[in-house]
Design brief:
Layout lengths: L3 E4 L5 E2 L2 E2 L12 E2 L61 E4 L3 E7 L6 H10 L1 H10 L4 E6 L35 E4 L8 H9 L23 E7 L8 H11 L1 H4 L8 E7 L31 H10 L3 E3 L6 H15 L5 E3 L7 E2 L5 E6 L7 E6 L9 E5 L2 E4 L1 H9 L4 E6 L8
Parallel strand pairs: 6-7, 6-9, 7-8, 9-10, 10-11, 15-16
Antiparallel strand pairs: 1-5, 2-3, 4-13, 12-17, 14-15, 14-18, 16-17
Helix pairs in contact: 2-7, 7-8
Length: 426
């Protein structure tokens, strides 16, 4: 079941409108009715004496951040000032529900993968599951890879508690839990796509018969789907063919249109390291054909292609000592995928008003007590930068740089502000 949290509004004058919706709140602008379409709701009166307003700071130094409008420090009328008809005062109480996430990990068991298997075992609890647990994501890990029953199985994998129920490894069989399931079968160098398809509905049985109908038994209908591929080789099947087959098998889980799959694919493959080796390649980065400094067969360009097309991240597999940072970064991305800190639903405007998407701002209050930061709007995701967000008909979406900061600050507060002037970053 998804976790939820209800928050009451807080009040900050900005222009002639007031902010509402505390941590993970909803967002919309306000303007005179008739300026644009939109559903109507009844406005509520705010408190008689709102607290001091947040002071906007440079959301993106040196690159055209928002600046305060003139008058009263750029923060609108002083508390108690008479409101005009231009912007109404509104507040809202919202319920935030994180989407559950099912994470399917495919780990290559070929003979060159012993170091990688041990690195995954060492980090999947401390630097992956624990981060998801702390952020209250309703997650489930489904591992498709050979289970390690004996020490001599160097490239098989055995997962300990608390993710599984095992107290020691190797073990006679996997230890499934509420959060962890393992479909034990061998994956060779280049057949991850084939194995995932064959094991989905049990065409290829798992070694311990824990899921006779395949790993689909462990998927949840409402959950987001995230894949993590770990291999030092490339796929023997084109990415487009895999997506076609997967969406045909289960459109309810992976998307009905193969041109628009609904899953995210992360790749830990043999591509070259970045200047900081644990920094990911993001979807906008081109496919990297150079190989990382280590014992790999190739750069895994087919998996890279799938990561780019689904919004996933790519990491070099050679950095065994850096798997802690890699798993942390993937966990943070999973948190973002589940919604919450970085995506706010779009509410209806106050009664007699219409939505004005140009007049939305976001205020981020760090838990450290530092001054709040005012984030500005960019037109499209392609224009994203630090200190910015995108707003569309579905709501407000923090840009990746801003989302990284907010998601990493578990005790921070985010407020959506209604303004009476454009918040667009130039």
């Amino acid at each position: 079941m998804a976790h939820s949290r209800t928050n009451r509004s807080r009040w900050f004058p900005f222009g002639a409108c007031l902010a509402w919706a505390a941590w993970l709140a909803s967002a919309a602008g306000c303007s005179a009715a008739g300026s644009s379409g939109g559903p109507q709701v009844v406005a509520e009166a705010g408190p008689a004496s709102p607290p001091p307003a947040a002071v906007p700071v440079d959301a993106n130094p040196g690159s055209g951040s928002t600046s305060p409008p003139p008058g009263n420090g750029g923060m609108g009328p002083a508390p108690g000032a008479e409101e005009t008809g231009a912007c109404a005062t509104a507040s809202a109480q919202v319920e935030i529900v994180r989407l559950p996430v099912d994470i399917i990990i495919a780990l290559d068991n070929s003979g060159s993968m012993d170091d990688e298997a041990r690195a995954v075992e060492a980090n999947i609890n401390v630097n992956f599951a624990s981060i998801l647990q702390q952020t209250q994501v309703d997650y489930r890990v489904i591992l498709v890879s050979e289970h390690r029953e004996r020490d001599l199985q160097d490239t098989a994998i055995c997962i300990l508690s608390p993710l599984s129920t095992l107290s020691s490894c190797p073990s006679d069989q996997p230890g499934p839990s509420d959060r962890f399931f393992q479909y034990s079968t061998e994956i060779d160098s280049s057949d991850s796509f084939d194995v995932l398809l064959e094991t989905y509905d049990g065409q290829r049985a798992d070694d311990f018969e824990l899921a006779p109908d395949g790993w689909r038994e462990w998927l949840r209908p409402a959950a987001q789907k995230v894949f993590v591929e770990i291999t030092d080789d490339d796929a023997n099947t084109p990415a487009a063919d895999f997506v076609d087959a997967l969406t045909a098998l289960a459109p309810e889980h992976f998307g009905a249109d193969p041109r628009q799959p609904t899953f995210v694919w992360h790749s830990i493959v043999g591509l070259a390291q970045r200047p900081i080796a644990t920094d990911p390649y993001v979807p906008a980065d081109p496919i990297e054909e150079r190989e990382c400094a280590g014992d790999v067969f190739n750069a895994g360009t087919t998996y890279q292609e799938l990561s780019r097309s689904t919004g996933g991240l790519r990491f070099p597999i050679c950095e065994f000592g850096g798997y802690d940072a890699v798993f942390q970064r993937i966990a943070e991305n999973v948190v973002q995928t589940s919604g919450g800190a970085c995506d706010f639903a779009l509410p209806a405007p106050p009664s007699g008003r219409a939505l004005d998407l140009d007049k939305v701002a976001v205020s981020y209050q760090p838990s450290s007590g530092e001054p709040p930061q005012l984030l500005g709007r960019v037109v499209a995701a392609a224009d994203c930068r630090a200190g910015a967000f995108v707003v569309d008909g579905a709501g407000v979406h923090l840009c990746p740089e801003a989302c990284d900061v907010v998601s990493a600050d578990a005790e921070a507060a985010v407020d959506v502000l209604f303004t009476c002037e454009s918040t667009l970053l130039r």
